[in-house]
Amino acid sequence: MILPKERDPRLITIRRGGSLTDAHHRLLALWAAECAEHVLHHFEAAAPEDDRPRRAIEMTRAWTRGEVKMTEAHDFAFVANAAGRDLKGAGKFAALAAGQSVAVAHVAAHDLGAAAYAIRAVRAAAANGEEERAGRAECDWQRARLRGEIRALVLDDQKNRNAICWGVFE
Hints:
Elements: H1 22-46, H2 52-64, H3 70-83, H4 89-103, H5 111-125, H6 131-144, H7 148-161
Helix pairs in contact: 1-2, 1-4, 1-5, 2-3, 2-4, 3-4, 4-5, 5-6
């Protein structure tokens, strides 16, 4: 569960009563796609013939360009998540990161889901005893890619939702 019961209005678009601009919504989606793509190789190693998570990441980017509707992107989140259903560990978490990235089109707060699952993928792939270090390195990598316009929002949200995101942002 990566979404809180009470949603932060900063992560709700203006047209839905929040304060998130469409431009910032797109930046959150692009960052989520980048996080998911960074760990996609874990899924592709486990299921090399399955392109659903890669297509989900591509659809995330297509949505930011206005090439697909929100509903089409949102529906594809279920497809990407299903790709990881029978997997374990890093491959499963990488598929879930892709599913979360494309779900950002519907609910911006899924951005942290993509980031958190990517960190979980890296931790799961790490050598025994290296999980925390690998997770910290992935979190640092993700934060280095945050655009200035959304950086403070994402960092604050990571602090606020860390507990429901498996503590991966500490």
